[in-house]
Design goal:
Elements: H1 2-17, H2 22-42, H3 63-73, H4 88-111, H5 116-142
């Protein structure tokens, strides 16, 4: 169990490092600025437009740790002889989480009338974070590290 949390923590740090690597940091900066500007401009939490079912947008944050957990549990040891090949079930789970996050994000943008800029900014920021986790998970599940 300790090994799981140590590996999970390592993958988490690597995923977050993705966000500030020089070429990718520009995307992170633009998405962050869009999110901050949408919060300042639309004030989503203080308007009467906000409904309790809009909180489903926070469900997207659960896909990030779930993807990393699958990466840790389905890790392929690239030094093992003979090489076992990629973890097919782990890769399928990673694809399902990515598709689920995309569907939840699209649903939230569609449902949040009057706050769509905020919803789109938050969904794009969450998908950007999930892309970092998917990169680490894909390397872990296939055994092909960059």
């Amino acid at each position: 169990m300790v090994q799981f949390w140590l590996t999970f923590w390592t993958y988490l740090l690597w995923s977050l490092e993705f966000l500030y690597v020089p070429p990718l940091a520009y995307g992170t900066l633009l998405l962050g600025l869009s999110f901050i500007a949408s919060v300042i401009r639309q004030r989503p939490f203080s308007k009467p437009i906000w409904k309790t079912n809009y909180s489903i947008v926070l469900l997207q944050f659960l896909f990030f740790p779930a993807t990393l957990a699958v990466a840790v549990l389905g890790r392929v040891d690239w030094q093992q002889v003979p090489f076992p090949g990629p973890n097919a079930w782990g890769l399928r789970a990673e694809y399902v989480f990515a598709l689920g996050s995309l569907i939840v994000g699209g649903y939230c943008v569609w449902r949040m009338k009057g706050l769509r800029w905020f919803a789109l900014s938050l969904a794009m920021l969450q998908l950007w974070l999930l892309a970092a986790a998917n990169l680490i998970a894909a390397m872990s599940l296939t055994g092909n590290w960059l």
